[in-house]
Amino acid sequence: MDYEIKTHGKFRFVEEGEGEPLILLHGLFGALSNFKDLLEYFRHHCKVVIPILPLYELNILDTSVGGLAKYVHRFIETRNYGQVHLLGNSLGGHVALIYALHHPENLKTLILTGSSGLFENGMGETYPKRGDYEYIRKKTELTFYDPRVATKELVDEVFEIVNNRFKALKIITLAKSAIRNNLGDELRQIQVPVLLIWGKNDTITPPLVAEEFHRLLPNSELHYIDKCGHAPMMEVPEAFNAILHEFLKKHADGIK
To answer: How far apart are CA 110 and CA 150, in angstroms?
Structure first.
């Protein structure tokens, strides 16, 4: 199902449903399609919002996880969303964590899945290997437990990015920023309820990363999904949505 991309000033986003805002932040190679099953399910229960993160539009000084967190803050303030449920996958989770550290007053809950911020395996030392479609296909498949989830459309999207010199440089800059920005013990400052949904077979942010997040985040709960990789909301959407729904029923007004 296609959703209208709305604009508000310089911000571009999808917004569907009514109620408390559930804001979804995609990762480094993310797109709106990453959240299609989640959006379709939760638009019947709350207001689902997906800002299109300006991975390639920020100036060089702001091309960082911190710069993206500032962008998210400006977006939330401009849209006057108030108390939000903030969900991030991969780099999007890292951005959500930085936002939570700087603007806890705007946050009701935090949901992380395959988040960076402590440790992650990237595309490898040779990334991005431009021009080699087979290499990109294999690397994209490693995102998932079931390589069939890496459809040709998805591989084509990644291939286009790494073969665009400007986009590739931006991706490298953001990836290096994420590696440098290790949050460590700062996470203990985050007091809002946190839901960690992790693929047991995630090789990019392995289960030991989830355990460390769970240890450092004082008000967190951790749920594993078996036979699942780095993007549970794409690979096993029904299981992911069921866990998230139970969490939101405890912490969001009007969700049953």
So the answer is: 27
Q: Is the peptide bond before 128 cis (omega within 30 degrees of 0)?
A: yes
- Would you say residue 123 has pLDDT above 80? no
Query: What pLDDT band is residue 125 in, cutting at 50, 70 and 90?
Result: very low
Domain ranges of the chain: 6-120+182-251
First-residue to last-residue Cα distance in the chain: 24
Question: Could you tell me which of 59, 62, 20 has the C-alpha nearest to residue 42?
Answer: 20
Which option is the CATH number for 6-120+182-251: 3.40.50.1820, 3.60.20.10, 3.30.70.660, 3.40.720.10?
3.40.50.1820
Strands 21-25 and 11-16: unpaired
Nearest to 225 by CA among 200, 190, 206, 252: 200
Amino acid at 204: I
DSSP lists the bridge partners of residue 49 as 15, 23
